[in-house]
Amino acid sequence: MVNVRDQLDFSLHTQAFAPAEWRVSDRLVPYDEALATMEARAAAIAKGEARELVWLLEHPPLYTAGTSARTDDLVEARFPVHETGRGGQFTYHGPGQRVVYLMLNLKHRTPDVRRYVATLEEWLIRTLSAFNVRGERREDRIGVWVARPDKGAGCEDKIAAIGIRLKRWVSLHGIALNIDPDLTHFSGIVPCGVSEPRYGVTSLADLGLPVSTAEVDMALQREFELLFGPTA
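and the corresponding structure tokens:
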């Protein structure tokens, strides 16, 4: 079956305004602080008072509940749980996971939510390819998945999650790529509502790839610029 998202033109590049700011935080950023920063920056972007922002960071261990989160999917609240306005269900964030929040003006790029999500998937897939990992998209599951035939027929693990929100066509939230988090921390939730035993969670380290965060960041920036345009 042909994957509809494979037929999209992924480029959301624009020459309409200045390069997006590329910001990397080298500390664990509390979730409430990140949310406040995103909200303020997105509002300024919508008013034409600030540049777009791509913000790379890590959080202390926590769970976030998207707008579709089901109470039963919170198995054990091992860490603080934060309500959030992004789409999706329960997600874990913590050290060893590269979170990227994107505040992009889609009104000036392409005001198409489906295309934006597909481009985020493509960005992750291309980044993983730089480390010889074959990431794949699925029509019935948002995010990026890795086939795990070593675990059994039909087994797949999620290596990256996507959750977004739009306000006045400016994006908030973004992606989370597992580099080397403690995968046992995911056991407190049903990640993204996917409960079938053949679907799990993985990371670059779990796949036997001792990749540094700096290396991932370089790959992310390179592939971002090819899809979304220049950064500064």
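(Above: one complete record from the training split.) The mean pLDDT is 92.
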